[in-house]
């Protein structure tokens, strides 16, 4: 049964109606006009970056320099969408093919109309902006529902844009998101956990509203015997602990070649020991997540794992110190479920075949990191995930031209780059007859010799080679 909260629904309906009314005008601005407006928005965000970083820090707790880095990354993607929308989505002619040589053929990407964007709190600017920038650049108006933990960040972004009918912001809890899914928007761009993603898909299925699903992850870092161990350890600690581990692409599992396991582990522990909760990393944002982190650590230890750093004592209220676990069984929650805390499991493997096999066993498939001097790209090709960074952590997510998204339980569809722009537009095919066909194939006036010609065509074009 769907429970409808009328206050919530009314607010969402009003925002969607305003966006619907503004959609034709926004689309008619064309790529150039929209690009100008997006540039003005980008500049407003850049000018207010200090204030915005302060808001991020206050609402979800990440250190100010990390908040500033998040804004910088988001602006790079916004700039890319603003500058490349026309080249990616604008009309282009394609070859007509043998049966329709007398036609001009054009493909173009048209806006859906109104797009609902539902965002998480862990990267409250970078993550939703990936969808919002592409949706606006493609010619849609947007209604954005930020996380209930970061409503002011959402409002700030909307105010910086300066036109609530083109970019509306609706705040509230999950009920607001649910109402947005049922509001008649033309597409939903969702970023959040896999569990909520399932609910969003179910709600959108009722009206066949298309969805983009950017969900959770359980990313692995693979360390080969020939890896630069200092760089790999640095990537493991930053990838696992930064933002208190609350990153969809966080490193949560490490598979390391047994020949270098001990040396690598020593380096990781030494580095992680220097990372302190409350100083280098913020608190766990959602109080309920502390329990999940604690239960994953305890389960790992109960089942034979060992904490070489941290452990249950590392969980001190909402501040969780880095925890490094070894010897954790592959079927324990710390290996199979998204922990979303500053924890790492480090597991020795016989070779990279085993590392790839264990990496791919996960139901998630968002990103991965590989460290190897000689074989990085070859190992990367064998990993089932939306992206892999070789010899660096998460470099792919910062490259504006590269798509970001997952496979399996990590979702489907893409933000960023050309694929991210196409995500918020539907392809539209047009043909225009330039002159009548000398061979009327699709007419009841088709002469018998035309049938012969079709048979010859099949043989010549497809039967001989
Ligand atoms: P979440 O709890 O799933 O919430 C995500 C968004 O969905 C929030 O705005 C939430 O609103 C809203 N929501 C909740 N229930 C809803 C419903 N029934 N219908 C529609 N919307 C609903 O996720 P989160 O805790 O904010 O974010 C962390 C998760 O996001 C992690 O799993 C992380 O891996 C994932 N993530 C993925 C990516 C990626 O690119 N793949 C990026 C960042 C984060 P409320 O907050 O108000 O409940």
Explain this structure to me?
The structure is a single chain. By secondary structure, the protein is α/β, with parallel strands linked by helices. It has three domains: 8-215 and 414-426, Aldehyde Dehydrogenase, Chain A, domain 1 (3-Layer(aba) Sandwich), CATH 3.40.605; 219-401, Aldehyde Dehydrogenase, Chain A, domain 2 (3-Layer(aba) Sandwich); 435-463, no CATH class. The protein is 45% helix and 18% strand. It has helices at residues 6-28, 30-47, 49-60, 64-89, 126-137, 151-161, 174-181, 194-205, 229-241, 261-273, 287-302, 333-336, 352-360, 376-381, 395-398, 417-423, 448-463, and strands at residues 92-94, 103-111, 114-118, 141-145, 167-169, 187-191, 211-214, 219-223, 251-257, 306-309, 315-316, 319-320, 323-326, 343-349, 364-365, 368-371, 389-390, 407-408, 411-412, 425-433. Strands 10-13-14-9-8-16-17 form a seven-stranded mixed sheet, with helices on both faces. The chain has a six-stranded mixed sheet with strand order 5-4-3-6-7-19, sandwiched between helices. A three-stranded antiparallel sheet has the order 1-2-20. Strand 11 (315-316) and strand 12 form a beta hairpin. The longest helix is centred in the N-terminal third of the chain and has 26 residues, at 64-89. It is globular. NADP nicotinamide-adenine-dinucleotide phosphate (NAP) is lined by residues 118-123, 127, 145, 147-149, 173-174, 177-178, 181, 191-193, 196, 199-200, 214-217, 248, 338, 366, 406.
